Every structure is written in C-alpha cells, then in structure tokens.
Amino acid sequence: MCGIYLTNIPYQLEEIDTKLDSISYRGPDFKGIKKINHLTFGHLRLSILDLNTRSNQPMDFENFTIVYNGEIYNYKTIQKELQDLGYIFKTESDTEVLLIGYKQWGKAVLEKINGMFAFSIYDAETNRLFSARDRLGVKPFYYYWENGKFEICSQIKPMLADKKINEDAISMFLDCMFIPSPYTIVDEVFKLPPGNYMEIDLNNKTLNIEEYWNLKPVKVKDISYQDAKSELHDLLLDAVKIRLQSDVPIGSFLSGGIDSALVSSLAAKVSPSQINTFSIGFDDPKFDESKIAEQYSKILNTTHKTIICTPNDILKLIPKLTEVYDEPFADSSALPSLLLNKITKQYVTVALSGDGGDESFIGYEHFDSLMRNKRIMDIPYAIRKLIVKSGVLKLFGMNTDRIKNALNTKSRNDFIENIFSRKGFLLNEKKQDYMKHYQGYKTWSNNFLQKAADLNIKLWLENDSNVKVDRASMAFSVEVRSPFLDYRIVEYARTLPMHFRYEKGKQKKILRDILKDYIPEEVFNQPKRGFAVPIGDWMRTELKEEFLKALNDEFLNKVPNLNVLKFKRLLSEHMEQKEDHTAYIWKLYVLSKWYDEFGFRQNS
C-alpha cells in the first residue's frame, strides 16, 4: 500500500519532494523519485510484501517503469504463469509481477489480476503511458490533464497548488456528503473511474479513457439455497485466504455486525496462527457494539483490543480528518475509523475488514425503507400528489415524513436516488447533474432492491466507503483489505435470487446462515448499531461551542450556492432539539474545516 506520483510538468526535484512529503503517511518506509526522459516518477512505499529494498519503486523492467499502489492478491498464480513463459523474477513482490505481466499481455493483464490497485506504467520506447484503477475503486487515482501536460497522484493534495475550486463540486458535496467521481474539489483535476484504464500518448498529446469492467445485466442462477450457500462459503474462504498473504503482522477489524464477524471467523479458520482483532466502543450504549465484538472474540479465540471513543477523542481527530481527507468528506464514521487505525497500527500493519458486505447482500437500513414504501410507489404519481394535498394523511394519523416523501417522489428510481442525494435541498439552485454518470443501475436489473444495491456499489461504495477506509488507514500507514470487495463475490452475489440474500426482517440471510457455522445465532442476532458516532448529540453539548464558532455568518456567506437562511433554520432547530439535522450540520462543519486547511479561491 503506497502513494504514487507521476508528471511531465518540469518541476524541480525539491518541489516533487515537497509534494510527496504532503502525503508521506501513505508510505513511510521508502520515498523514491526518478527522472526518465521528460517524466518524473514519485513513490511512497508501505512495505507489505518482500520487505527487501529490491522491491522499492519506481521499478524498471526493460523499457518499462511502474509506480503502483495496492495489492494483487493472486500474484503468485500470475507469477507462475509468467515463469512458465520464460520470465525470471528478481523480487518476491506483486509489483514486479504486475510490471512483467503488462509487458507480456498489455492491457489484457487487467483481466487476470484480482486486487485493489492504481498504477501507471511508462513505455520509454513508445513514449506512452498506461494507467488503471481497480474494478471497484478501492484505491484512489487522481489526474490532471491540460494540453499534453499531466499529473497523476494517489491523493489530490500534491496537485492543489495554483488550482481553483470547482464551485459545482461544492454543491455536489452538499447533496451527497462527498464529491462523486469523476469530479473533484478543483476544476482541472479528475478521478479515474473504477474499472477504467487511461492511455496517454505523449507524442501526440492525447488522452484516452476506456472501461474494462463494470456491473452487467443480472442473470439470476437456477440454484438451490444449500448449493449457493456452499459455493459462496468457498468463495469467501478463498477471498480471505489470499488476503492473508503478508510479510508483516496482520489482524482483523471486528464490530458487532455480521460482515466483520464472518471475515474474522474465516480468517481465524484459515490463518496458521491466532489472529488479532480490533473494535471501537462508545460510552453511549445506543452506539456501542464493543461488548458484542468481545463475545465474538472469545468464541473465535482471537487476541482482541477494544478502543473506547469519547467526544474529546473526536475533537482531537478533526484536524487529522481535514489533513488526510483532502477533499471535503462528511461521513462522520471516518472519525472512529481514524481512531481504530491509529490504535491498530500499534499492533499490526495489515487489517481485514467487512466493508462491502452490505452492498452485495442487502444489509443497509435503507433497503428496508425501500421495501416499506414499495406499495406506495406503485400508486400512480398523480394520485399520490392528490393524497398529499387532500390532507387525508392527517385524518388517519399518518402525517409522517416517510410516507409524505414516498408519496411526493415521482418514480421508484427517484426514490432510490434520494437515498444517496439530497437533490439540492441545501442549495439555492440545482447545479451539475452528477447522477448522469451513474444511470447504469436502471438497466442492469428489474428488481427494486438490486437496483438500489447497484447504485450503492457504483456511487456510494467508491466515493464514500472506499474513500473513508483508504484515507483513515493510510493516515496511520495501515493497509486494509476487504474480502467482500473481491470482484468475484460482487459478481456472484448479484446472480443469487434476492430471497437468498434478503427476507423481510432478515437482511443478509445467506451470510447469517454461513456465520452460524462459526458463531451461535443468538450471539450475532442482535440489533445493528452501525459504525457511527453520536455526533448529533455532541454538537448540542460537548462540541456546541466548536460548531457554532465554525458555522459563522462570514463562512456561510462565502459558500457558493448555499441557501444560508434555510441552513441557519436547520441549525437552530437542531440546537433546540426540535429536529435532528446532524447530517446537514456536519457537512457544513467539515466544509468549514476544509476551507481553513486549504484556503479558498473564488472563481471570477
């Protein structure tokens, strides 16, 4: 796990050094800078496989040079195939396997590799650059391109100098709590979408981006439940096993939920030694899952560490949040994620996680919400509008926001999208239509829940969950590996009948039934509290002064397109405990901290 940088802009070596230093936490073990022709390569290494200096980057093979961030989990299989073709390897690293694999197969190497990755390979003979990002966007890839000049980096911070803010991106952030791909917080920098590769011909000054993987139209398997359970169990075992390859200590995150419990169970089964597990706890029992996690640990015989999170811990981590999440990012669970990785680093360098299970196996609460409102959405929109206007809901004591929102939503697809986007709620006017990049979910399945799950994978997983995990772990030089994000599992889950994964009142049915082989059902069948913090309560109490100071009129009035009067009303309602507007207040607070950290340049 590392940080990459590459450019043909003629910066001085001292400038490149400063850029890399700004994200040095991504790779504290070695910093490599190399000039080849008119290009400058930079790399920050977090040593995981083959700790020898021979595996430092940038790495060369013949006329090819690579900078690479990530892990290729099946690299040994690919290495054997290349050895059979006559190649000789000088290292035990997946970097060399990827580099030689590209030499042998070109872009077709992407079909062979299973992992999380973002890399660039330069061919000095043809003066062309090939870059790619993993299928699900686990690893970040930012690029700047203008008239043949480019920069590539693992984070946006080294590319912020002299760039102007993308004001439309601020509106996207206020809608989503993140900035969706391919956009970024600055005008000239973009994200390479997951499952895409990018080719730059430096002779002709052309850039071309192509898709090599995506979700496909669903073909549901004709399979018995027991066979599906067995096949999935085997797939998960293999996904965990290949993620245990490491030359440094490895552990597993363990919450009170199904996904991390199953990953930790499988790891305990296949690991040759006792595994380390780590969890976050809170003083507030509404949010605390640590006692359940400790029960899991005893059953699985792991060496367990619980980290208790207090409001003071959160306050101390806010500067770290803005330092490492170098775009505005308002998922408050990033805070306990930072704390978890901070403690974990004291014991291990690599940790398994359960991220990705909710998307593929229908685990989020909003899936239940979709099913509750499904019948309402079947009523023609014109009739639903009349019901709202008539006031009949009040007569039957049904004047709830949930029912009104469903009645006012035009279509099922709109209802799904409303889960992830506030559709201009905090804005003076609706801006860039970022959802146009995510419309594939409408065509891959006719199933209401599968559509929502697919949008969850394409929009939220890449831009929220993966960003949260990458930055929180890299902030403390920890590598997190997520077996549920193995593309084979994502593809397999989508072929299973929906009732294998979701039954009324029983989310993630098939995962629960697999977990029964390791942990008694009465232990894990407890209410899920989520990996969240009671930030809404804290901003009324311990952190109230901090929030009111940050959300002053001077700041609010310079946020482009913000409906200041509406926001101030929401803030007042929240502080007076009339309503819960935590999500909106946290967005603006995070944005204020981003302005403080990086400054603000208004476009003219």
Structure description:
This is asparagine synthase (glutamine-hydrolyzing). It holds the Pfam family GATase_7. There is one protein chain. With 604 residues, the chain is α+β, with helices and mostly antiparallel strands. It folds into 4 domains: 2-211, Aminohydrolase, N-terminal nucleophile (Ntn) domain (Glutamine Phosphoribosylpyrophosphate, subunit 1, domain 1), CATH 3.60.20; 225-362 and 452-524, HUPs (Rossmann fold); 365-450, no CATH class; 535-598, no CATH class. 43% of the residues lie in helices and 17% in strands. It contains 27 helices and 19 strands. A hairpin with a 4-residue loop joins strand 6 and strand 7 (128-133).
CATH architecture name of the largest domain:
3-Layer(aba) Sandwich
What number of structural domains do the residues give? 4
The CATH topology assignment of the largest domain is Rossmann fold
Number of helices: 27
Rg, Å, rounded: 24 Å
Write down the overall mean pLDDT. Answer: 91
Shape: globular
Pathway: Amino-acid biosynthesis; L-asparagine biosynthesis; L-asparagine from L-aspartate (L-Gln route): step 1/1
Organism: Gelidibacter pelagius
Enzyme class: ligase
Catalytic activity: L-aspartate + L-glutamine + ATP + H2O = L-asparagine + L-glutamate + AMP + diphosphate + H(+)
